[in-house]
Each structure stands twice: as structure tokens, then as C-alpha cells.
Amino acid sequence: MDKSKQLFRKSKRSFRRRLPPIRSGDRIDYRNISLISRFISEQGKILSRRVNRLTLKQQRLITIAIKQARILSSLPFRNNEKQLDRAESIPRTTSLRTKNK
């Protein structure tokens, strides 16, 4: 075979398929917090489909379930743990100003 034809040939590398994040037995529901929380970032954002490796239908169902859980206060709208730690570490001082007349 010519070298020019070898360049356009696809390599026959074997690759390992990743397991799907949602198994067939898992039910996508707003009450299944352990499943839903896997698809939320540390900041509380819904992760994209490419990051999650989900199908379009699964991503839609996950998004709806996350939004329902947020409305019902099962999940927070955002993750405030870092903000709370920072707020507790900074001492607040209140200075009283007196008016001089």
C-alpha cells in the first residue's frame, strides 16, 4: 500500500467504553436526590450533556427533575457553603459615627 493511502486510514485502536451514568433501573425523579446531585456542579449549576454523557432525553428529564427539586426545596438553588465559611471567618465591625454639630 502506498504511503499516501496509509495517511488517510483510520487507526484500529481499541478504546474502553465508559459506563453510562444512569442505569436502566435508575428512575429519574425529583425525589431521587442521590441521582440528581451527581449532575450538579459544586456551584449548583446543571452540568452539560457532554460532561454528563447522557442522551438528550435523559438530560431533559434530569433538568426537569433538578428544577422541581429546587422549587420544592429538596435541593438548593446554589451551593452557599463557601460563602458561609467566608462570612463566618470575617469579623464584622460596626463603627458608630457621631455627628459633630
From TrEMBL:
Molecular-function GO term, any one: structural constituent of ribosome
GO biological process: translation
Signal peptide: none
Principal cellular location given in the protein's record: plastid
Key word Plastid present: yes
UniProt cross-references to InterPro entries, sorted A to Z: Ribosomal_bS18, Ribosomal_bS18_CS, Ribosomal_bS18_sf
Gene Ontology cellular-component terms listed: chloroplast; mitochondrial small ribosomal subunit
Protein's UniProt keywords contain Cell cycle: no
Keyword annotations of the record: Chloroplast, Plastid, Ribonucleoprotein, Ribosomal protein, RNA-binding, rRNA-binding
Entry's localization field: Plastid, Chloroplast
Pfam families xref list: Ribosomal_S18 (PF01084)
Family: Belongs to the bacterial ribosomal protein bS18 family.
Name this polypeptide is given: Small ribosomal subunit protein bS18c
Organism: Anoectochilus roxburghii
Gene name of the encoded protein: rps18
